[in-house]
Automatic annotation (TrEMBL):
It is found in: Secreted. PROSITE patterns: CTCK_1 (PS01185), CTCK_2 (PS01225). Keywords: Disulfide bond, Secreted. Its main location: secreted. It holds the Pfam family Cys_knot. Transmembrane segments: none annotated. This is CTCK domain-containing protein. It comes from Electrophorus electricus.
Length: 102
């Protein structure tokens, strides 16, 4: 499926987890955009054929950032970073994507 409409979005922010705050701003990623979805009549099947895909992560990694807590202690926090996005085939369902690749 073409993935030209599905792209990675990047936002730099300070992470907060369990009352602790990252010591530096971190880049948080997400996937956004549209993928090919259509319905077409099939004479062979004598019914409508549906093709749906969703914009979602294709590759991820784990990143670590140092956090400082209100009591002055420091801890490390691991978060998921999206490396790439793409269109994934899904089951056509109103208002939602169901991954059919697994």
């Amino acid at each position: 499926m073409p993935s030209s409409g599905c792209n990675i979005q990047k936002n730099t922010t300070v992470l907060v987890s369990n009352g602790c705050t990252s010591t530096v701003p971190v880049e948080i990623t997400s996937c956004a955009g549209s993928c090919e979805t259509f319905s077409i009549y099939s004479a062979k099947a004598n019914s409508l054929m549906h093709s749906c895909s969703c914009c979602q992560e294709q590759a991820i990694s784990q990143k670590e950032v140092e956090m400082i807590c209100p009591n002055g202690s420091k801890t490390n926090h691991i978060y998921t970073y999206i490396e790439s996005c793409g269109c994934t085939n899904t089951e056509c369902a109103p208002g939602r994507c169901i991954d059919v690749t697994t």
